[in-house]
From TrEMBL:
Transmembrane segments: none annotated. InterPro entries: Trm112, Trm112-like. It holds the Pfam family Trm112p. GO terms for biological process: rRNA (guanine-N7)-methylation; tRNA methylation. Belongs to the TRM112 family. Signal peptide: none annotated. PANTHER family: MULTIFUNCTIONAL METHYLTRANSFERASE SUBUNIT TRM112-LIKE PROTEIN, UPF0315 PROTEIN-RELATED. This is Trm112p-domain-containing protein. It comes from the Eukaryota. One of its GO terms (molecular function) is protein heterodimerization activity.
Length: 147
């Protein structure tokens, strides 16, 4: 289950739908794994305005991951037109002003798309119900007495 997914799920109980404490689900006993993927700047740029930034910061803090800025970056912050020092010698004049992925874009890509929760629990902050995560898949089915 990708860290990005935690930004879009909430407790499945009807009693928790109206409670702000039910989002985000709190990871517990999480075993994290990095699954490398090719960087997708367009995806990160398009998903950035849809993220609940404060919730993402909370989840990262609870998992012991990198500290995110207090405010969400703008999509324009994800690219730089200044070539990196290693690229300067190789860049020609026409290529020098092409936008390049910034370190922020690389970090967000790693956090959102490459970091996965392999196993653990997701706990509702409102009712305390635990959803098991096994082999990267969260089980959101509720027992019949909670539906």
């Amino acid at each position: 289950m990708k860290i990005l997914t935690l930004n879009f799920v909430t407790c499945a109980r009807k009693a928790c739908k109206a409670s702000p404490a039910a989002f985000p689900l709190r990871p517990r006993e999480a075993e994290l794994e990095i699954v490398e993927q090719d960087i997708n700047p367009l995806f990160v740029r398009n998903v950035l305005p849809r993220l609940e930034w404060d919730a993402l910061r909370e989840v990262c803090g609870e998992l012991g991951l990198q500290q995110l800025p207090s405010t969400a970056p703008s999509p324009d912050d994800l690219f730089t037109t200044t070539p990196a020092a290693a690229d300067t010698a190789m860049a020609d004049a026409a290529d020098a002003h092409e936008p390049r992925p910034s370190q922020l874009l690389r970090d967000l890509h790693t956090l959102l798309l490459e970091t996965t929760m392999r196993s653990g629990k997701l706990v509702c902050g409102n009712c305390g119900h635990e959803y098991a995560v096994k082999e990267g898949i969260a089980n959101f089915l509720l027992p019949s007495h909670l539906v």
